[in-house]
Design brief:
22 strands, 19 helices, 527 residues, seven-stranded mixed sheet, 24% strand, globular, seven-stranded antiparallel sheet, alpha+beta
Length: 527
């Protein structure tokens, strides 16, 4: 645990990619094989079910410390993270517990079905033998997340440097369904986990936002242009007579889209398609807000199946009859995909249309219609490109339309985590509805470190109310908020929801009287 705690500390105090890679490599050089496996599992979201409820941990900590709840809440609101608050208020350890990361994880998994009294004895005993830093990690292992700026690619790069294996091989090896309880490190990174995983997806090929004039890409005929849809990127897999649907976030979402899984049965065995899961109604792609109604449901009612019918807009084929097609040029993969989709009896799987234009100017005009089609813009893919693992600059580009933007006022703030745990960095913004203010979006990114410090001082000096870790502030700071899409929503007071909100700039030249009105916001629904 001490080694893992030191690693987390190193990752939290640095924002430099190379430093983080170096820290992970150093850990891999000294960690036990089982601990290496758990590192990969924890950093890729393969976390076991929470064994202890957060409310019980808080209750036990209050019993140990004798703190009144109001004082605990003050501490919590100052720290901004429950696991860290608990680690700080507990009395100093009276013993030293030295267990490996894998031992702790195995014990926590075994704790899941135990009665609360057994759980209490275990947790309190652990707290009494761990340092403050180790307690924080222990609390996070129980139910928190590590917000330490370690991306999938960063982790893979560190493993590749440590093992000497290729990045693309490791990316593929650690995907899919595997258990840290029965996988060795060497077997895992080499793709030799126990049992054949017929559901195993491929690493997704990703695009960069275009950072140059499109005319510099060469002849438009050398590129495949497609609509960039705002759905869920996924892989539709059929192997050994079974169908699997994986999201880009490495979630197996087959059960959420039963009609698409049924459509996948018409595919030949050994087929993997890359595409976008969308709500398609009456031949039209609907907004993401409609798709959101289908997400994370254990059962899908017949009414919802009719209101939000699912389609799969496929734009690439990665495997056919068991053969890996990724090294093949996109032009050849596309030809095979067209033949395959054209032969399918079920039209729920549709082919992503290519936009054939004679010039970049003509393609730009087509791009101007994106918003009317519920599209975010265009994808540009070199016809000569292979299907890379992750991002490779130069082959695939995102040519998105300009985002919507509004002026909104800051009304709530909450402290961040990790390096930002001392600053108010999580903000809620509102627009005007007559004389009232109604919340419209939360945003966490877009400000410089200097601006974050200035907003933090404002929040601390102008707090009106406290709700746990959240502060209500005087509505004085105005920001321009950008977002990709907008839709009606009954879940928000404003009656609308925005997609991917972020801070574009701080409007120091505006006051609360200048912020966007709810009527102006609703006008965007008609665009």
């Amino acid at each position: 645990m001490e080694k893992f705690a030191n690693l987390i500390h190193e990752l939290e105090i640095s924002n430099k990619t190379n430093d983080k890679v170096d820290a992970i490599v150093r850990y891999l050089q000294v960690a036990d094989d089982r601990d290496k496996v758990w590192l990969i599992a924890l950093f890729t979201g393969k976390r076991p079910k929470r064994p202890v409820k957060a409310g019980l941990m808080k209750q036990w900590a209050l019993e140990l410390t004798g703190l009144p709840e109001w004082l605990f809440l003050e501490c919590y609101s100052s720290v901004g993270d429950l696991g860290e608050t608990l680690s700080l208020i507990l009395p100093p350890p009276d013993k030293k517990l030295s267990k490996s990361l894998s031992t702790w994880m195995t014990e926590l998994i075994a704790l899941q079905d135990q009665p609360d009294e057994v759980k209490k004895q275990y947790v309190v005993h652990a707290w009494s033998g761990l340092t403050t830093a180790e307690r924080l990690i222990f609390n996070k292992l129980i139910g928190g997340g590590f917000r330490i700026g370690v991306s999938y690619k960063l982790l893979v790069n560190a493993i590749a440097r440590h093992t000497g294996a290729s990045v693309s091989m490791i990316m593929h090896s650690i995907m899919g369904q595997w258990s840290p309880l029965d996988s060795s490190f060497d077997a895992l990174v080499e793709g030799n986990t126990s049992g054949e995983d017929i559901s195993k997806p491929y690493p997704f090929c990703l695009a960069y936002p275009i950072d140059k004039e499109v005319e510099t890409l060469g002849a438009v005929q050398e590129w495949q242009a497609e609509w960039k849809w705002d759905g869920i990127r996924g892989q539709l897999i059929k192997r050994a007579g079974e169908v699997f649907i994986w999201s880009r976030g490495e979630e197996l979402v087959t059960a959420q889209f039963p009609e698409l899984a049924a459509s996948g049965l018409s595919l030949p065995d050994g087929t993997v398609l890359d595409g976008e899961i969308l709500v398609i109604k009456d031949g039209r792609v609907c907004s993401f807000n409609q798709l959101q109604k289908r997400l994370n449901r254990k059962t899908i009612a017949r009414k919802l199946l009719e209101e939000a019918p699912i389609g799969f807009c496929t734009y690439d084929i990665l495997e056919f009859k068991g053969e890996d097609l990724r090294p093949m040029a996109l032009s050849r993969r596309r030809s095979l995909l067209e033949v395959l989709v054209g032969s399918l009896p079920d039209k729920r799987i549709i082919l992503s249309p290519r936009l054939a234009c004679a010039s970049w100017e003509e393609l730009a005009r087509e791009r101007g219609q994106a918003r009317a089609l519920n599209s975010e813009g265009l994808m540009l893919k070199s016809l000569a490109s292979v299907y890379h693992s992750g991002r490779k600059k130069g082959d695939w580009w995102k040519w998105k339309i300009e985002p919507y933007s509004i002026d909104a006022v800051l009304i709530y703030a909450q402290k961040g985590s990790g390096r930002r745990s001392s600053y108010y960095t999580d903000y809620t913004f509102a627009v005007r509805d007559g004389d009232a203010l109604v919340t419209i979006a939360k945003a966490y990114s877009g400000l410089t470190d200097k601006e974050i410090a200035q907003v933090d001082r404002f929040v601390k000096n102008n707090s009106v109310e406290k709700f746990g870790p959240v502060r209500t502030v005087k509505p004085e700071l105005v920001f321009e908020i950008g977002f990709e899409g907008i839709a009606e929503s009954k879940r928000h007071k404003a009656g609308v929801a925005v997609r991917f909100p972020r801070i574009l700039r701080w409007r120091t030249d505006k006051t609360v009287q200048d912020v966007t009105t709810i009527e102006e916001l609703r006008m965007l629904l008609k665009q």
